[in-house]
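Re: weekly structure request thread

Next one in the queue (418 aa):
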Amino acid sequence: MLDIKFIRNNPEIFDKKIKDRNCAVTSKEILQLDEEKRVKIAQIQDLQSQRNEIAGKIAKAKKEGASADELFTRSKEVNTKLKSLEEDSSIDEKLDNLLATMPNLADDEVPVGKDETDNLEVEKFGTPKEFSFTPKAHEDLGEDLGMLDFEQSTKMSGSRFSSLTGDLAKLERALSNFMLDIASQNGYLEVSPPNIVKSQAMYNSGQLPKFGDDAFSTKDDYWLIPTAEVPLVNFAVRKNLKEEDFPLRFTAYTPCFRREAGSAGKDTRGMIRQHQFKKVELVSITTAEQSNEEHERMTNIACELLTKLGLPFKKLLLCTGDMGFGARKTYDLEVWFPSQKRYREVSSCSNCGDFQARRAGIKFKKEKKNVFAHTLNGSALALGRTLIAILENYQNEDGSITVPEALVNYMGGLKKIG
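Done, posted below.
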């Protein structure tokens, strides 16, 4: 959630930055509601002061044996007005709802742009392999191996689901262990969190109300997590944190569930865009002074994973129009897919600043003051997309798949899947 004080003190800067995020709300709309709320608060405080003053006069009149009828009448009038104002939450709700649906403001380093075509390429790693044959798509490779199933999965669960068996299922498990080990070596505490959370947890992490239509929910106010970022950020909610506790670093391997609302017709074949997928997530919670450095560190870990796997990829700095809702700065890592002859996103690392912390109330003691923390999140890597990138980049002409050297030990010494 955005800082209302910043909007009050910097309306012109706010208007420019929120427009860069493709959001049509203006500071005028927000500050009008804010002023109404402040007037209401002042009225409540004035009535409370009158109530206390009248109560003192009533007590004095009783002590002196004087009549207090007029004071009691006045007290009743004040209390009626006070109760009416205190119970009327319409202005507060309007302001809160407006702020809750507004995206984070971009860091000054973020390029201004409308969509992915305006993202800035920072660096390329590795060179795409030149094949002596026409490389197959991952779905064809997996089905030919008899280890990737769409037909039965669709029968039991519908479209955008798949199942892995045999050595491909083992490869997925190997990838998760490999990623978790690298994360642990870099100081991340491994967590096995709940995969179902309450609405408040979704709100705290910025998923609600904005992305309610894209998430799976139950009938009793529970949600299947769209990313492990949700429970990991909530690990710090309502805790007595101190500056010396930071940075907090968590990692988790979980299934993720998304309706993929609005993606009809996109990536309908294969495992690129599914309703259920697995991911190793990184979450850091730190101070404002440390967050930029922590963002670079987190992104470098994801780069390390792809480098160790020997996959060609590039690093992008996302523009204002392509960043996620809660991010103030985001790096995307895109891996080369030979069958598509293009790079596809496999990791996204974002610095959210104090945006989530304001929603969730994640604060810490600094010089005897309560200060909002900064939160960061990143996909160590999305397992499904990483697995299919391995299938395509390590495929052989006979349809077998060479196991990346970094995963051989995790595969029990297996060097080729065929």
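The first helix runs from residue 4 to 9. The domain at 116-417 is CATH 3.30.930.10 (BirA Bifunctional Protein; domain 2).
Next request, please.
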